[in-house]
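Supplementary notes for students who missed Thursday's class. We covered one full example, reproduced here. Read the sequence, then the structure, then the short commentary at the end.
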Amino acid sequence: MKVLITGITGFVGSHLLDYISKNDLGTVYGLKRPRSLMDNIHSQVELLDCDITDYHSVQAIIDTVKPDCIFHLAAQSYVPLSWAAPQATFTINVLGTLNILEAMRQKSPNARMLFAGSSEEYGMVKPSECPITEDQPLQPLSPYGVSKVAGELLCRQYIRSYNLHIVTTRAFNHTGPRRGDVFATSDFAKQIARIEKGLAPPTITVGNLEAQRDWTDVRDMVKAYWLAIEDCVAGEPYNICSDTTISISGMLHILLGLSTVKMAVKNDPARMRPSDVPLLSGSSKEFRRLTGWKPTIPFEKTLRDLLDYWRERV
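Structure (token representation):
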């Protein structure tokens, strides 16, 4: 089986590569930008330079590879950056997705594709509407969330218009080793590691600690992505999550408990978002029914592995 992964050098893409390699599931081709760092690549892959916003480049690669499976993971995925750079976010997340779909339609129409959507598509959800099911109206509160809704709608249109096999997922928060340090779990872990090494004063700066999130280990998430492309119905959205919520404050408390160094916590107004989703509590009941998937890695182990990752690097 020939597997094409966009965003191969990123957080999720590199873990998916490791999962496929470890389980001998196919030959992996990975799209990367010429300036991409290779730090996350630890398994065998054929790397291909490609900017997904350049249609002719995307088309040429899909025509050459003729993949059996496409995992479309490349995206501008940092929510705060989507306010600072909404145009770039839409160019990458919407135009990039359109280019993948059109090239797939023309050059590899029998392939299976997974579109990695996000729980940020749900946006403003009342506590009474939780846990969130796939029937929940989409009310995104960030340019990033809107871009993911647009990408998902494009996938649906290509399914209906051209009978392509595309599975759309809405992953809730996921973290683990290799997570970019702009994201809360990784940012806090890196700050702790720096303090432990004496590279920073013993104070962690934070943003909104009240938001509640549903976290899954990335290594469980990529297994879910593989099962999704094998077992799920094209055109139907699927939540992938742990079905358990914890506040940002609770997550930080676990991380602090993994260190022997005493640290203060200080709020930084610059870390606050223009608008934030207060609660993202999901239900993955339908996905679990179809695939038999369930998360296996406890959240404390996820955070310990993430902290150890930064301890090795600061």
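Commentary. The chain has a mean pLDDT of 96. The chain is about 40% helix and 15% strand. If anything here is unclear, bring it to office hours.
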